[in-house]
Amino acid sequence: MFYPVFQQYNWQEVADSIYAQTSEDVLRALQRPRRTLEDFKALVSPAAKPFLERMAVESRALTRQRFGKTIQLYVPLYLSNVCQNICTYCAFSMDNHIPRKTLTDAEILQEVQAIKAMGYEHVLLVTGEASHEVGVAYLQNAIRLIKPFFAHISLEVQPLQEDEYALLKAEGLHTVLMYQETYHEANYKQYHPKGRKSNFVYRLATPDRLGKAGIHKIGLGTLIGLEDWRTDAFFTALHLQYLEQTYWQTKYSVSFPRLRPIAQEQGHKTFSKYMNDAELVQLICAYRLLRDDLEISMSTREQERFRDHAVQLGITSMSAGSKTNPGGYAVAPQSLEQFEISDERSPAVIAAMIKAQGYEPVWKDWDQTLC
Q1: What PANTHER family has UniProt attached to this entry (predicted)?
Q2: What is the mean pLDDT for each group of 10 consecutive residues in the chain (371 residues)?
C-alpha cells in the first residue's frame, strides 16, 4: 500500500527542498535522458522559470514521439449532484442548500443522445459522493445503459471497495479518476470537514484498490489552489511512481484542475489563483519530462487561449462542450453545476482548432474487443 511510502516523506521538508533547488539543479535535470523524482523537484521549482522555453520544446518533442500529433476528445456526463460530503471548494457540498438532481434511466438516455450527436465515443461519468443515491447498484445500471453507445467509459465518483471496482469493470468500466485533492495530510480535513471524503488515508488507498481490481487506467491529480502546487505535484509524482512499480499493467494519466468559481445560496464563491498560466505550463512540461508515456488531460476549466496553446505543449486529451450539471446537455440545463467552465466552445469548434494546429482530434482510440 502507498501510505507507508507516503509516510517516509515530510510535507515541509519536501517543500523546502523544492524551493532550495538552483539553476544548476535544473540544468542537471534537463541533461538527463531519464529523470528521477529529485530531478522533478528541480523542474517544478521556481529556479526552472528561466528554462521554461527549453522545457516546452522538449516536452512537445517527447509528446509527439510517443503519441504523435493527436489529441483525444472526451466529455463528462454528470449523473447526480447529490453529495454526502462537505467540501469547502465544491458546489455539490452537502451544506450548499440548492435543489439536487439524480438522473433516471430515461434521462440518462436523453443525455446520451445529446452527447452522441456531438460525436463522442469517450464518456466520463461523474456524480457527487452519495452511497445511497448513487452507489454501486446505480453506477452498475448506468454503465449497462450507456455501454452500447460508447467505446470507452470512465468514472469519477466516490471511492469504492476493490470488489466493487471489479464488478463495474465486468460491466464495461475502463478508467477511474481519483483525485487526492491535496497530499497535505495535516490540512486535508480543513477542506473536507465532514463525510467519507474527510478520511485522508482511505482516499489515498483508492488507487491501490483500483490496481488490485485490474482497472485499465487510473487518473491521478490534485486540486490546484488548496495547497502549494509544487509540493502537491511532487507527492502526485511519488504516488504515480509507486503505482507504476506496483501495478505495472495499468495505464496512468494526470490532470491539473485549477479551482473555479462555484454557485452557492448566497451567490458565487471565487478563489484566489495560486498558479498562473506560466506555472501551469511548467507543471505540464515537468510531468512530460518525467514520463514520456504519461497521458495528460486538460478540461474546460481552462480558458480558450490557454487551451489553444496547450495543444502543442504536452497534453494528450481534452474535454469540450462540457456541462458540469446533471441533465446539462438536454434534460435539466439549469440544474446545479459543480463548477463554472471557462471554455464554452463546441466540440466541433475545438476539433477545428486542433486540426488548424496540424494535430488530429481523436474521437475513438479504444474498442470493447480490447478488453
Answers
A1: 2-IMINOACETATE SYNTHASE (PTHR43583)
A2: 98 98 98 96 98 98 97 96 92 88 97 96 96 95 97 97 98 97 96 95 98 98 93 98 97 92 64 81 98 95 94 96 92 78 93 97 77 58
Q: What is the pLDDT of residue 113?
A: 97
In whole angstroms, what is the distance from residue 277 CA to residue 264 CA? 27
Burial class (CB in 10 A: 0-12, 13-18, 19+), 345: middle
User: Do the beta carbons of residue 14 and residue 231 sit within 8 Å?
Assistant: yes
* Nearest Cα to Cα of residue 55 among 298, 229, 288, 306: 288
| Its pTM surpasses 0.90 | yes
| CA 282/CA 93 separation, integer angstroms | 31
Residue 273 is predicted with a pLDDT of 55
Q: How far apart are CA 10 and CA 181, in angstroms?
A: 18
Q: Are 52 and 281 in contact (CB under 8 A)?
A: yes
| pLDDT value of position 31 | 97
**Cα separation of 228 and 224, whole Å?**
8
Q: Determine the Cα–Cα distance for residues 234 and 252; give it in Å rounded to an integer.
A: 16
Range of the domain at 214: 2-365
Smallest CA-to-CA distance from 22 within 3, 1, 43, 8 is with 43
Do residues 316 and 70 make contact, with C-beta atoms less than 8 angstroms apart?
yes
Q: If you compute the radius of gyration of the chain from its CA atoms, what whole number of angstroms results?
A: 20
pLDDT score of 80: 95
Residue 191 lies in a domain: yes
pLDDT for res 333? 80
> Is the residue at 371 inside a domain?
no
CATH number at residue 187: 3.20.20.70
CA 147 to CA 151: how far, in whole Å?
8
In 3D space, the residue among 73, 71, 72, 91 whose CA is nearest the CA of residue 82 turns out to be: 91
Residue 200's pLDDT is 98
Q: What is the pLDDT of residue 267?
A: 64
How far apart, in whole angstroms, are the C-alpha atoms of residue 244 and residue 140?
Answer: 28
Residue 55, domain member (yes or no)? yes
Distance, CA of 167 to CA of 309 (rounded, Å): 40
The x, y and z cell numbers of residue 68, run together, are 504523435
SS3 28: helix
